[in-house]
Amino acid sequence: MTADPPMTTDPTMARIGQGVELHHHQGRPEAARDLFARIWDDIGGEQGDPLHVCVLAHSMADVQDDVRQELMWDLRALAAADRVTDEQVAQAGVALPVAGLYPSLHLNLGECHRRLGELDRAREHLRQARARIDVLGDDGYGRLVRGGLDRLAGLLGEPA
């Protein structure tokens, strides 16, 4: 569940934003997947800048047809997030601290595990997302992630 990325001055982040636009606003997931694949190659894959790897992998997960592929991309995003600093985020012009990446990452991982029938893992990611949700503002992105967590909680039989 990737919302519109926060505004950025970083050219690679802007290209990722174009892919998100293709997927979420133009309904063209294949075109987004192709663009994301080109960007992935351009940044050097998992060896690239951790912020780019994180946001790109998180976005690439959303355009996968297979839940296991989606999970793989989301795990890449989570691993990269652990290497991102607030300074890198600020330099890219993203108005969100690193901690703000984790609720959405864990939400997506929880949803993947739920769809795979791995409910204990799904609940653990729900717990981790909720533990970090306070960093998100009361804006469209924050509301989107909170709504996703409430929906996932409901599907898992957990209190909202």
Any descriptors?
160 residues; mainly alpha; 0% strand; globular; disordered N terminus
3D architecture notes:
There is one protein chain. By secondary structure, the chain is an all-alpha fold. The protein is 67% helix and 0% strand. The chain contains 8 helices and no strands. The protein has helices spanning 11-25, 29-43, 50-62, 67-81, 86-91, 102-115, 119-131, 140-155. α2 (29-43) packs antiparallel against α3 (50-62), α4 (67-81) runs antiparallel to α6 and α6 (102-115) packs parallel to α8 (140-155).
Secondary-structure map:
Elements: H1 11-25, H2 29-43, H3 50-62, H4 67-81, H5 86-91, H6 102-115, H7 119-131, H8 140-155
Broad structural category = mainly alpha
- Show unreliable segments: 2-6
Task: Report the sheet with the most strands, covering strand number, pairing sense and barrel closure.
Answer: none
Our count of helices gives 8
- The coarse silhouette is globular
Query: Roughly how many Å is the radius of gyration?
Result: 15 Å
The helix fraction, in percent, is 55-70%
Distance between the termini: 18 Å
Query: Secondary-structure element order, as H and E?
Result: HHHHHHHH
Task: Give a quick precis of the structure.
With 160 residues, this protein is mainly α. Helices cover 67% and strands 0% of the residues. The longest helix is centred in the C-terminal third of the chain and has 16 residues, at 140-155.
